[in-house]
Structure to design on (358 residues):
């Protein structure tokens, strides 16, 4: 159920204070607004002080001091005429969210993480044309800069200076989220919410198709979780021969990594044949050490891929919906975030979801 608690925002100059309702004006204590902290405010003074606006409280996970905590907070503000407010139906936890929630990827204090989700449009700004209230939608979490060569050429998915929902902007681990309509896409009717939330990981997996994969090459995918399974699935769907890694001494023309770290770099690069290609797609924060004496004498190529266009991934969701459904794992209210993040870290075979409305 939506959180129906309401509160009043009182503003005086630059000071702002949220006060839960119901309240008695005689009980209001306006910290930082009244002449001295903790002073009682007369009803008449309240009228002089306050520009009042009523807003709903919403449940959210919020990053504070390098960890995610549960909070009731004011509903997100609609600022632009193209802003869309979305009521989040379900939001999936991905590795990036774990890094943010545990402070490995630093974000601004108060940031709401979460970028893989499906929801219902609550309201759409007057200048919007793409969606209307009641539409079931998903969102492309990559926010292009709008100013680089790729953006100018209407290829925003190739933007090299993107921002990311849940890191640079407030994300989806909340009851409500506000997004510019350019990132909002209607979810096909036959795709469940939990699979709709898979559009972003699918776009990330489909990026491997942009690598230089000559049809007929032998391809191997490293890693054991759902990201590796999804990447292999996508490659096979597009006609590539993907082999299981059963023998660490066997070479492949192309190795796609989904879990590269310093500890496994030597083993991963050792799978690539001389002159072959390592495709990098995982996004571990920090630095990963690569052994030059394994790469240079064997003339290895390293190719990086990022995202396929979001609408291309979305177009494949209906056909692959049943297959993707195998990754749908447990569902949690936002209040259960500690356990949910623990589960998401412990086992990457299934997706763990938040249900912010529960
Ligand atoms: Zn993700
Ligand atoms: Zn750009």
């Amino acid at each position: 159920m939506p959180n129906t608690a309401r509160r009043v925002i009182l503003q005086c100059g630059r000071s702002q204070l949220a006060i839960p309702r119901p309240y008695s004006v005689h009980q209001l204590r306006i910290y930082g607004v009244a002449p001295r902290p903790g002073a009682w405010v007369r009803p008449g003074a309240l009228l002089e002080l306050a520009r009042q606006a009523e807003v709903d409280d919403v449940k959210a996970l919020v990053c504070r001091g390098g960890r995610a905590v549960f909070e009731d907070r004011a509903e997100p503000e609609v600022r632009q005429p193209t802003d869309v407010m979305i009521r989040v139906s379900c939001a999936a936890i991905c590795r990036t969210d774990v890094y943010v929630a545990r402070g490995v990827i630093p974000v601004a204090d108060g940031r709401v993480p979460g970028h893989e989700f499906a929801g219902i449009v609550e309201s759409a700004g007057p200048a919007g044309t793409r969606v209307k209230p009641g539409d079931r939608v998903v969102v492309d979490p990559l926010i292009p800069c709008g100013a680089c060569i790729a953006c100018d050429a209407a290829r925003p998915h190739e933007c090299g200076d993107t921002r990311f929902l849940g890191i640079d902007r407030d994300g989806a681990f909340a009851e409500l989220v506000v997004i510019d309509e350019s990132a909002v896409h209607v979810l096909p009717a036959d795709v469940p919410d939990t699979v709709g939330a898979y559009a972003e990981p699918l776009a990330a997996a489909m990026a491997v198709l942009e690598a230089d994969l000559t049809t007929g090459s032998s391809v191997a995918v490293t890693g054991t979780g759902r990201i590796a399974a999804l990447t292999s699935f996508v490659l096979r769907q597009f006609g590539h021969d993907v082999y299981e890694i059963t023998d660490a001494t066997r070479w492949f023309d192309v190795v796609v990594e989904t879990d590269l770290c310093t500890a496994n770099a030597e083993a991963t690069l050792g799978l690539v044949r001389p002159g072959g290609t390592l495709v990098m797609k995982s996004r571990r924060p920090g630095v990963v050490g690569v052994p030059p004496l394994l790469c240079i004498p064997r003339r290895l190529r390293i190719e990086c891929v990022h995202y396929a266009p979001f609408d291309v991934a979305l177009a494949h969701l209906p056909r692959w919906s049943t297959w993707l459904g195998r990754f749908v794992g447990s569902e949690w209210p936002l209040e259960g975030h500690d356990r949910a993040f623990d589960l998401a870290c412990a086992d990457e075979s299934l997706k763990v979801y938040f249900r912010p409305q529960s």
Summary: Confidence is low (pLDDT under 50) at residues 1-5, 21-45, 47-54.
